[in-house]
Known about the structure:
The complex is a heterotrimer.
Chain A: E1 3-14, H1 39-42, E2 51-52, H2 53-65, E3 73-74, E4 77-80, E5 90-93, E6 103-109, E7 112-125, E8 129-131, E9 138-142, E10 149-155, H3 162-178, E11 191-201, E12 211-216, H4 219-238, E13 247-251, E14 256-259, E15 272-273, E16 280-281, H5 284-293, H6 298-309, H7 313-319, H8 323-335, H9 340-357, H10 369-380, H11 386-397, H12 403-409, H13 418-431, H14 433-440, H15 446-457, H16 464-475
Parallel strand pairs in A: 12-13
Antiparallel strand pairs in A: 1-10, 1-11, 3-16, 4-5, 4-15, 6-7, 7-10, 8-9, 11-12, 13-14
Helix pairs in contact in A: 2-5, 3-4, 6-7, 8-10, 10-11, 13-15, 13-16, 14-15, 15-16
Chain B: H1 6-14, H2 20-33, E1 40-43, H3 45-60, E2 71-75, H4 102-109, E3 113-118, H5 152-159, E4 165-170, H6 176-182, E5 185-188, E6 208-213, H7 216-226, E7 256-260, H8 270-285, E8 289-293, H9 301-316, H10 335-346, H11 349-362, H12 368-391, E9 394-398, H13 414-419, H14 425-430, E10 434-442, E11 445-452, H15 458-471
Parallel strand pairs in B: 2-3, 7-8, 7-9
Antiparallel strand pairs in B: 1-3, 4-6, 5-6, 5-10, 9-11, 10-11
Chain C: H1 5-14, H2 21-38, E1 62-63, H3 73-77, E2 83-84, E3 87-91
Antiparallel strand pairs in C: 2-3
Helix pairs in contact in C: 1-2
Amino acid sequence: xxxxxxxxxxxxAQLATKSKIFSGASTAxxxxxxxxxxxxxxxxxxxxxxxxxEAVRMxxxxxxxxxxxxxxxxxxxxxxxxxxxxxxxxxxxQFELPIVGPGHIDIDVDGNTKxxxxxxxxxxxxxxxxxxxxxxxxxxxxxxxxxxxLLEIVSEPDMRSAKEAxxxxxxxxxxxxxxxxxxxxxxxxxxxxDANVSVRPKGQQEFGTRTELKNINSFRFVERAINHEVERxxxxxxxxGTIIQETRLYDADADExxxxxxxxxxxxxxxxxxxxxxxxxxxDSLKAQLKSELPELPAAKKxxxxxxxxxxxxxxxxxxxxxxxxxxxxxxxxxxDNVVKLAANWISGDLIGAxxxxxxxxxxSPIDPVRLGGLIKRISDNTISGKIAKQxxxxxxxxxxxxxxxxxxxxxxQITDTGAIEAIIDxxxxxxxKQVEQYLGGKEKVFGFFVGQVMKETQGKASPAEVxxxxxxxxxx
Amino acid sequence: xxxxxxxxxxxxxxxxSYSSVExxxxxxxxxxxxxxxxxxxTVSEDIALQQAEQADKKLANDDxxxxxxxxxxxxxxxxxxxxxxxxxxxxxxxxxxxxxATVVEKFNDAGAVMxxxxxxxxxxxxxxxxxxFYGASKNPWNSDTVPGGxxxxxxxxxxxxxxxxxxxxxxxxxxxxxxxLCGITGLKPTYGRVSRYGMIAYASSLDQGGPMARSAADAAxxxxxxxxxxxxxxxxxxHPVPDYSADLNxxxxxxxxxxxxxxxxxxxxxxxASVIQAVIDEYxxxxxxxxxxxxxxxDYAIPxxxxxxxxxxxxxxxxxxxxxxxxxxxxxxxxxxMYTRSxxxxxxxxxxxxxxxxxxxxxxxxxxxxYLKAQKVRRLISNDFKQALSExxxxxxxVSPTTAFKLGEKTGDPIQMYLSDIYTIAINLAGLPAMSxxxxxxxxxxxxxxxxxxxxxEAKLLQTAHQYQMVTDWHQRTPHGFx
Amino acid sequence: MSLTADDVxxxxxxxxxxxxxxxxxxxxxxLSRMLDLMTQMNDLNxxxxxxxxxxxxxxxxLRPDEVTESDQRExxxxxxPQVENxxxxxxxxxx
Lengths: 477, 483, 95
């Protein structure tokens, strides 16, 4: 039996506003419990919600970026249920008229582009947090997070593999950060993913019963959780069972999904328009203004990097993975007087490697584009070799000096003087007759020995190109 | 002192005939004297005297406005910082509000003195004050009868001269009906005119806070302070606040009065009909034109109202869960037990009925048939009013189908109780402003006249009422024993 | 339009309202009668009528994105049934 997997993702992105969606309390992460929960967030008797302008703008920007319809008239609805981290006993969300209508995200998997539909995106408020640690059989509730704005982004069930799901999630993650509407910090919970997974025999039109996977907070877990769930479902069906529509939690330690007991009973949320809020009207003028404020989006930037800088798809993809990195690259290219290839290599290789080692973001790079550009210029104009450049890079990382200053101070200028190099080569050839014999006898590898000796003699400063050229010449006899 | 109007009291304070402290003490002792009326849930003596002292300082410097130093009372639905705010319920019996409602802030800024918090039906659900956890307030005209509801305590306290004026709230008639039953003046403003921030919600799209006093002129003074745009309330309207007292004395030139046919059907009690007719005749005498208007959908106001109000309240009252404030049951076994027992033990029967009703109306499969249907009927009723008010200046009619009924008379039958809102309820669905003013007596019990105006025409309503009060004295009558 | 006691129990659970067994029948009766009242609306044809959620024909006002609230935890928690280390305590939530 050939099976087809059907996946839809629901992503909750916490919008990076300063204050909550319906109150003026701060949304800053990491505060002491309940110090950022004002009267409105606590759902005290008599309080009322007032909508944050920035949350609306961010939602519209997102809609424009995925080429979605922006609903002219949208409504907030109450989703009613009881839970201690939900102070009012209802969540203010959107139901029938969400602010963003159907749009799409294009993903690249194994060299192919696929369009994934986005059904809708809507605004809602986040709930607080439950802490189940030791409180003698009690749970502690922190409502700091209650009221933080969320954009819930719902995809069509268009994905057919865990890989596609991860690609979609990554694309979305990149996009919201590009738009500066969400910091995408999954450890802090600002970007959360639920996956709806089902299987069906290949060729069948009807969808199979789906389960919802929750609590997936990394790209790696998404892939594993989905794959595990797919296996489980196929297993159940092949053994004659049926899939129960339920919510399952992913347990990263055990690498398995478990049924969430309490969600067995279907929740009747009794949605109705929130009478404390009025409908939001999005004028065309606002849409036009926000459209003009959109940054160059990742897809377009990647295309441009490929055409303008002649980069291959993979490198362009790496360099445009964040707005900051792309900007860093372009500034470096400028600072290096357009030595594109080297800039691309050094950034995507050495710089990112060094940053990752110390868990630093590109914005925290100890070497700025101007200094890096300076280094690249010197490689390009042959002042130093690539190998020596690594030494200079190291020194730049730990200090503030420019490449030029370091090269000067450490006397690292490449020796290109052919006369000097020739003299050294001659000496080495004269002093190592055995190796000469071996080389002439056919041992190609011995060439490396000579190169090594010249480099040792010149403390690595001889131009490798020159050395190679000359050695070949001299050893031809 | 307790028979003086607000304007007279203000003048008395300014001329130093008495101080605010003396005035306050006078009312506090009257409240104490008439505790059996059960009009107050909390008497805030210390705060009142402090505020009175502050006011006296201001008055000494010729500072402040008309309400500076004037004692008032708040319906116990408005949150008052540091003062118990119960909403007439066991659920909030231990709730010391940690902030002030906008309306309360405004009165504080105006220098008014708060005597205390007034009795009311539990969570504003009721028409007799009998659902209050603290027991019903009594009607000062006859202590065997109800003062009306849900602002029963407010109406009773004013009629008994325990306070010169008070705030009330009106969702289906809760200012107008008690005003009528207690022979005082009450006004429900246009929806959005008065901020709902800090006014504990019953039905969000219907609730509105308003003034209750012994005359339209006094009510105008209170409304002047209460009205206004509030950024904390999304349903608050940014509409200019006129001087509500400016045109009170202007004679009504050719006022066009509409009488809804449906209000004057054969179902209307004859005696009450006569009283209302006499008032209308009085207006005719001063040049008003009377016209009958048809409002064909008015009969459906009660079902539409109860679906909408109960749906909204079922959601608004979900926050009372014993987690962050209010009543929590003893020794909860688990979370479910805590929720069900806290809410089960602390909500009264009427509140429970409406929560159940509302939950049902919103539940899967019933939303279209009940809630959505009710919202459509609401539009039809609103249109009826818009149509009528395009032909006339104001509408008039009865407020209550009966005078104050006996305590316990309708508590056995919720439907009977709901039907006492028959004349007031439609107005809340449309969001229009309306008043109740004393119109006479039937069997020595007060009868009220309802005046309904167009959106934001409170000034016209007050003027219309005041003109009548200038040539009659129903509003000056005092119940026996409270002179 | 009649509700059964079972219906009422289900609704009461949705609303987390504890109702004593002995009162279920009373509530069932009252609610059934209330529903009868509500169904009177079916006499009206509302096919082409737009629902009216608000008396006002207005749009939602937007608030600037500014932090205007300060930490009032102490004040707010003074009235809480049970708190510890700044957290509200409730019987353990089973996931």
